[in-house]
Amino acid sequence: MIAAIVLRTGRCICGGILKGPGLKHAKAFLIALAIIAVMAFAACASSSVSETGSAQASDQLSGSATSQADSASQDKPTDAADFSARTKTWVVLGDSLTKKYFRAKTAYYDYVAQDIGCTIVNYGETGTGYKEHSRTEPFYERVDRMDVSDVDCLTIFGSFNDLGKGYSLGSAYDETTDTIGGCMNLTIQNLIKKNPGLRIGIVTPTPWRTNYCYTPDGANFYGTTRYECDSYVSLLKEVAKRHRLPVLDLYETFGLDPDDEEIRKRFYTEDGKTDDGGVHPNSEGHKFMYPMWREFVKTLMASDAVS
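The structure corresponding to this sequence follows.
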């Protein structure tokens, strides 16, 4: 189109030249104009294509960046697993290892709370268990005064206090207070009744020194044998399995053997003073086991409870 316009313009301008002797030179002049026009057209077309290509490439890069940003946003952890999103609440139910005890000024839950940043609600009572109640109510009755309506998880820790009193172990399917197994089931069932969506974790007792005896004022006596402790832990695991609850087995995996004198001196002695006898870990003992607690609790808290 541009070449044709140039040719017509050239003819008008050179109309007089096209006649007579200048005809040959005029034709050469017009051909040169046509060549120049074609080259100009080609340059314009090339520039247009380049600009279009650049715009398309820019759009593609922009789209890619947006897609990657969207993907990154989708990969970001949800609040359920993000412990910095809000303060979580962890309820601890147990015996003297859970109650703030003079032999351990810093307990397992203190270390965990400092690590992941959660609120602790403590229902630990000294000398108690699922069935044992010589000092205060047993676990299954304590549930009645516990507020578990808006918490993220709850752990039950203990307790060999149930041994040594002649209580029958019973089975994992007992549902009365006549046996230890029945009291274990009632504790869990009572919690579920209060909050069916509560995230419950069962924690076995830490090992006690073999044949440990405890006689405050002659009121209590514990003669725990390895067989009795093994049987108790096996029963507790069966009860947890029945209710499909996760278990942290500190009895088998604690990593500290209280029958070892050197371990007792370091991990069972109150601030370097007196040997506890191999039952209550001191602050260093609690610190030793806290990483296992932390991972267990984080797993429980990974999904919010359905209240």
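The beta strands are 88-94, 118-124, 153-157, 200-203, 247-248.
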